[in-house]
Design brief:
Helices cover 24% and strands 26% of the residues. It contains 5 helices and 8 strands, in the order E-H-E-H-H-E-E-E-E-H-E-H-E. The structure holds flavin-adenine dinucleotide (FAD).
Length: 185
């Protein structure tokens, strides 16, 4: 079995960027990615250097895979289900399909996952429904905006958008999502 220098678990933006750098260091690198992550859910990044018109996560990942493969990085679509350390310099990972791979180092780039109570909104992500005021606040500037959320973050969201100038919002119970409508002047 081939012993890689590094296996990167997770081939989103972070994992692919790391694989490109390690590829440039002439390391034998394997990226193992199960295919679905935050970057696959973003239909348009608009705050990325070099993409003034925006780029989808899917396209960005595909470009990243090609850039990494040109540097000798191997990419497989598999779900990692188990990790075992044989020795300080030898790790083995196992996947759902029953495959195993070995490396001297492991890099976890598995990201985080969102809890979306409204899966039916996913086709609108990045187009007319946004999940992040920092990434996408600019897109709704001067637009009437409906905010869905809960808890502390939800309560503070209207002021994040309006600099404290929100003129109205409606709250339901803490357990349920609240709906807040911002009227902009
Ligand atoms: C709808 C949406 C819109 C966004 N918009 C923006 C934006 O406009 N601008 C911006 O800067 N950021 C935006 N973000 C955030 C951005 O997408 C994330 O910060 C970025 O994707 C993080 O990259 P990552 O590589 O850490 O994680 P991810 O992109 O989530 O990649 C992690 C990868 O690890 C894989 N993985 C996890 N566990 C395993 C396992 N056991 N085996 C194999 N693979 C595994 C997943 O399949 C996934 O492909 C947005 C996020 C969402 C959800």
């Amino acid at each position: 079995m081939e012993l890689y220098d590094v296996i990167i678990i997770g081939g989103g933006i972070a994992g692919l960027q790391a694989s490109i750098q390690l590829g440039r260091y002439d390391r034998r690198v394997l990226v193992v990615d199960r295919g679905l992550g935050r970057s696959t859910r973003c239909l348009k990044y608009r705050n990325i250097l070099g993409w003034p018109e925006g780029v989808s996560g899917k396209d960005l990942r595909q470009i990243g895979i090609e850039q990494a493969e040109a540097l000798g990085v191997t990419h497989v679509t598999e779900n990692v289900t188990n990790v075992h350390r044989h020795s300080p310099e030898q790790f083995q990972i196992a996947t759902e399909n029953g495959n195993t791979f070995e490396a001297r180092r492991l890099l976890f780039a598995t990201g985080v996952s969102d809890q979306n109570p409204f899966p039916q909104l996913e086709p609108c992500f990045g187009l007319s429904v946004y999940i992040c005021p920092d990434c996408d606040g600019h897109e709704v500037e001067n637009e009437p905006t409906l905010i869905l959320g809960s808890g502390k973050a939800g309560v503070h969201m209207p002021s994040a958008f309006t600099g404290g100038r929100a003129t109205s919002h409606t709250l339901t119970t803490r357990k349920n999502p609240f709906v807040s409508k911002i009227n902009r002047n």
